[in-house]
Amino acid sequence: xxxxxxxxxxxxxxxxxxxxxxxxxxxxxxxxxxxxxxxxxxxxxxxxxxxxxxxxxxxxxxxxxxxxxxxxxxxxxxxxxxxxxxxxxxxxxxxxxxxxxxxxxxxxxxxxxxxxxxxxxxxxxxxxxxxxxxxxxxxxxxxxxxxxxxxxxxxxxxxxxxxxxxxxxxxxxxxxxxxxxxxxxxxxxxxxxxxxxxxxxxxxxxxxxxxxxxxxxxxxxxxxxxxxxxxxxxxxxxxxxxxxxxx
Length: 247
What we know:
The chain is mostly beta strands. The protein has helices at residues 2-26, 111-115; strands at 33-45, 48-53, 59-64, 66-67, 77-84, 92-99, 103-105, 116-121, 127-137, 142-153, 156-161, 173-176, 180-192, 197-213, 219-236.
């Protein structure tokens, strides 16, 4: 478990450092705002069907209840980097966002719990999305914003078959998997603290189509909608842009 926590945090740190370094050689070539940010918060997911295929046969578990386990180790967190355009397009931007959202299936007294003793993605659904952004300044301190984007899900799939269950004898799965596409939407409010530093509060929704191979030749399919309530801080590397509505 410790090594997987390290892998998850290592992935996020690598993304954050890459976002910072990427701004250095190109920020002078554009008059817009390059920025990076980090955040934490709470995530929860809607019930969804899960299909497990050990081979030619398949079992579908209806309305599996997911717990976000946001404050259990490793906790929910995320990092991002982006760019706001300048001139007539100063209200528009783009962002690369990584979130360590998690889900854990409720097993007690459930059909899926009869077949699995462990079934979760608590080392992360690991959602990476490229978003288009639009901002609407309300005052010189507060700016509202929204975004839409698409990306990929790279969850840490964890499945352990229960002795005597339908998948008894199937090897344990405990690996990172490239699972499928993600659609993301967000709306938030940014508050300027200094010319370079801002705080933000945001609601973000991700819908991921996860299809992963299980050890032993099986397959797991689960489409998961995740609501995320986040608080974070961002840092702007250059602050030349004046949004059109404030000119």
